[in-house]
Amino acid sequence: MSQHYLPPGSINNGRFLLGGDAAEHLSRALRARPGDTIKVFDGAGGRFLAELEAVGRSVSGRVTGPLPWSPPAFRTVICHALAARAALEETLRHATEAGAAEFRPFFSERAQAGRIRAALPAVGAGVVGIASDTCGGSAAVPSSATGRLDEEWERRRERYEGIILSAAEQCERGDLPAVLPPAHFHELLELPGRKLIGAPGKDAKPLTAIAAGLEKGAEVLVFIGPEGGFSPDELDLAKRKGAEFFTLGPTVLRAETAAASAAAVLACAGESLK
Known about the structure:
The protein contains nine helices and 13 strands. By secondary structure, the chain is α/β, with parallel strands linked by helices.
C-alpha cells in the first residue's frame, strides 16, 4: 500500500482531490482503481488511510481514518558541505529516510570548486571565493556572484524538495524536512543546539555514546565535511564554539553515507525516550 502527499488544506470535510503528477502516478504507474486503499500524509505530521473514489486525470477520495506516526525524539539538522550534485541529492534522499528534520548545506575550505559548480553551475568561478571565507567574517564573494548563487539555488530548490518528498513518501514519515540555502560554516556554528562534527580522531567519541546522553526534544546539528575532510582551521573554530567531535566507526564513509548513518543512529537512540 503506497503513501502519497496531500498538501495541508487539501482535505475538506474528509475528502480530497489530487491532480498533476500525483494523479498521473496513481492512475498510470500504479494502476489504481476506485475502491483501492492508499496512505496519505500532509507533510505536517498527519498520516491517514484513504479510499479512492474516482481515478483519472484527477484522483478523488475520502479519508477513512488516522495512521500513527511520531517524529524522532531528537531534531536532527544535517549540516553538510556542498558536494557534487549526485552526492548532494543522495544525502537528501537517504537522510530523509533516516529521520533528518532539516538540511543546511555549507561552504567548506576543502570543497572543490568543480564540485560546487556541479551543484550550483550558474555561479561559476565566483564560488571559489566563498570557500575561503568559511572561518572568517568578511564577505569574500562579489555581490553579483552571491546573487547568481541565490538564483541558481532557487532553481534547484524545487528539484531538491521533490527528492525529499519522494523519500518521505517511500519511508512513510508524516512530515517533510526543509532544505535551506547554502551558508558559511562559521554561520552555522552560531545556531542554537548541540553541535556534532564528524571528524574521526583522538578527541572523537562514538556517536552512539553521545546520543545516549541527549534529552528528548534536543536540537542536534550534525556537521558532515567534504571529501577532503574539515580543514585544521575549521576544526579549531568548531572546538572554540563548543562543538563535539564524533565518529561512526572504524571505516571511512562517503559524505552522503555518513549523513544518513548519523541521522539513523540518532533516530534509533531516541526511540527509548518516546
